[in-house]
Amino acid sequence: MAYVDTIKDMDVEALEREVITHNYHYWVRAQPVISDYDYDKLVEALKAKAPGSTVVEAVGMGGAIQNPDFRQRIADVVARHPVPADMEIGEKVQHDRPMLSLDKCYDEATLRKWYAKFEGDAVVSPKVDGVAVSIKYREGKLVLAATRGDGVTGEIITENVRQIVGLPLELDAQAIEVRGEAYMPDSIFEAEFKDQFANTRNLTAGGLKQKDPARTASYKLRFMAYDLTGERFETEVEKFKRLQALGFETVEPQLVTEENLQTSYDRILAIRDKLDYETDGIVYRTNRITEQERMGHTSHHPRYAIAYKFQGDSGVSTLRHIEWSVSRTGSINPVANVDPVELSGAMVGRASLHNLAIMEALGKDGVLYLGSKVVMMRRGGVIPHVESVSEHGTEPVVIPEVCPDCGAPTYRDRDVLMAHHTADCRIFQLRNLEHFISVVKADGFGAKIIAQLYDAGMLRGQADFFRLDPEKLETLERMGQRSAATLVANVQARRRLP
Ligand code: IVH
Fold it and tell me: Ligand 1 mean position to 189 CA, how many Å?
C-alpha cells in the first residue's frame, strides 16, 4: 500500500502523532523515513481534518522547533524511540537523495558539447581526490555524517567526521545537508604517512572508518564542501558564498563562459602541484540552479555537471622483478621493477607497491606474479605506483625471509613486512640518517653524501652530524675545502631548532 493510502483513515490524533514522529526522524535523527512528498501529503491530511491543530501550526522549518508545546511532544517521541542502533559507526544509512557520481570527459570538444546544453555560464573547481561525505545539521548542530557507499546507502561515520580539522560542528542554519570531499592534505601525507601508505585517498577512507574516533583524529583530515541542500539559491556561486559564510572550506569556484572553458582547465592544471590536496581533474557545473533543475540527472550522474579529467599519467608495462626496500621505520616494502615505459613525459622503470598487503591484494588469490602486466599511475606528480594488474604472470613473487641488507629475520605486522634490523643494517641506518637531516632541514646532505659519510665511518648515529670535522670531510672523494666547510656550517646552523 502506498503511504498516502495508509494515512487516509487516520483520525486527528493518529495524524498528529504521525507528523510528530516524522518530524523526529527528520529533525532529531536527521534520517527521514518517508519522502518529502509523503510528508507534505501527511501534513495536508492533518490540515484538512484539524486546521487549528498546534501540530499544524508548528509545521515548517524552524517553526516546529520553536514551538514549546511541539518541542515537548517531540521529546516524548524521542523518549519512546531509544537512539537507533544504526547511529553507530559503520552502520548503514539511506541517503535522502542519491549521492551520484560525475560524468567525465577527456577533451575540449566533449566539454563544449556539454556547455551547449544550458543557458548562462558555468562554475569550475578542482576535483578533489578524496572521499565523498554527507553531513547533516539540525538546529545548527552536526547530527549525522555518512559515507557515499553505493550512492543510495552509505555508512554512518558521524563521530569520526567530528574529528575533521576545521569542520564546523555548530553553525547558523536550521536543517541542511552539506556534501563534500574529506581529504588528507598533501603536506600531512608527505610529513607523516608517505613512507607507509599508497596515497591520500586510501588513507582518508581508512581514517574515516576507524572504530575509535580518536584514531581518526590522528589522520588530520580536512573537508572541502561542494554542495548544500535545505536552502534555496539562484546560482552555484551564491551557494558557495553561503558555504563559506557557514564556515566551510570550499574549492575556490571560478565562473567561466564558452571562450575560456579550456583555459580554465589549463590554469588549474598549471597550479595543480601547488594545491595542498590531490586533484584528478576539474569539475564544471551549470551556474543557474533553475537550469540545473531543468537538466536533471541520470541514475549515475547529474546532467548539469561534468568532470574534465587530467590525462596521460597512466601506463602499462611488464613486471620483471621485486625490489625489497627497507624504510626508516624498519618495514621492508615491495617496489616493482618494470620494463621502462613513458609516464607523463618521463621514462619510468620502478613503481611503488607500497606494502606487502597491497602487493598481495593486487595479485591473484593473494599472490603477485612476475611477468604480470601492471597498470601504473602517477597522481599529482609523486612517484608512480602500481594501480592494478591487467594480466597475471606465472612466476610467483617470493617474500623474503630475511632483510636483504642485514639478514635479520622478517615477520609480518598486519599490512607490512618487518624485521628487527641489526645496528649495522646499512640501509636502515641510511634511511634514518636521511630522515633526520630532512627533519632538521640542513642543506647539502643528499642521500649520496650521507651514504659516503656512513661508509667512511664518520656517521653512525644522528648526533654524528654535529661532530663532523671539516678536515676529515676533505679526505672524501670529490669533496673540496669549500664544500666541506659549507656542509659543517649548514648542520651547525641547525643545532638549535625552533
Ligand atoms: S560537484 C555529483 N565538485 O567527485 C554531484 N564534486 O567522481 C556534484 N568531487 O561524487 C558534485 N571534487 O564526490 C563536485 N569540486 C568538486 C568535486 C566533486 C570532488 C567528487 C564528488 C563526486 C565525485 C565523482
Answer: 22
- CB-based burial label for 238 (10 Å; 0-12, 13-18, 19+): middle
Atom number of ligand 1 nearest to Cα 125: 15
Nearest-CA residue for atom 12 of ligand 1: 127
Half-sphere exposure of 136 (CA within 13 A, CB side): 24
CB of 125 closer than 6 A to ligand 1?
yes
Supply the pLDDT for residue 425: 93
Q: Choose which residue among 102, 201, 227 to substitute to test ligand 1 binding: the one with the highest number of ligand atoms within 8 A of its C-beta.
A: 102
454 Cα: distance to centroid of ligand 1 (angstroms): 49
- The predicted model scores a pTM of 0.62
From CA 490, how far away is CA 445, in angstroms rounded? 9
Q: Is the beta carbon of 251 within 6 A of some atom in ligand 1?
A: yes
Chain centroid to CA 67: 40
Atom 5 of ligand 1, residue of closest alpha carbon: 100
Question: How would you class 254 by CB atoms within 10 Å of its CB: exposed for 0-12, middle for 13-18, buried for 19 or more?
Answer: middle
Residue 382: CB within 6 Å of ligand 1? no
Contact 16, 46 (CB under 8 A): yes
Active-site residue 364, yes or no? no
What are the cell numbers at 345?
613525459
* Distance (Å) from CA 426 to ligand 1 centroid: 46
Q: What are phi and psi of 398, to 5 degrees?
A: -95, 130
pLDDT tens for 443-493 read: 899 999 999 999 999 999 999 999 999 999 999 888 889 999 999 999 999
Give the residue whose CA is nearest to atom 18 of ligand 1.
Answer: 127
Whether 193 contacts 167, CB under 8 Å: no
Residue 320 CA to residue 73 CA, distance in Å, equals: 70
426-440 and 447-455 helices, crossing angle to 10°: 130
Kindly tell me if the per-residue pLDDT of 61 is higher than 70: no
Asked whether 275 lines ligand 1 (CB < 6 A), one says no
Rounded to whole angstroms, the Cα distance separating 381 from 235 reads: 34
Among residues 8, 49, 127, 211, which one is catalytic? 127
- Residue spans of beta strands (DSSP E) within 216-370: 222-229, 249-250, 254-256, 279-286, 305-309, 314-326, 331-343, 346-352, 369-370
Residue 118 has pLDDT above 50, yes or no: yes
Instruction: Determine the atom of ligand 1 nearest the C-alpha atom of 282.
Output: 15
260 contacts: CB under 8 Å, gap ≥ 6: none
Q: What one-letter code names the amino acid at 411?
A: Y
pLDDT value at residue 299: 86
The number of residues making up the chain comes to 498
State the distance from the centre of ligand 1 to the C-alpha of 95, rounded, in angstroms. 16
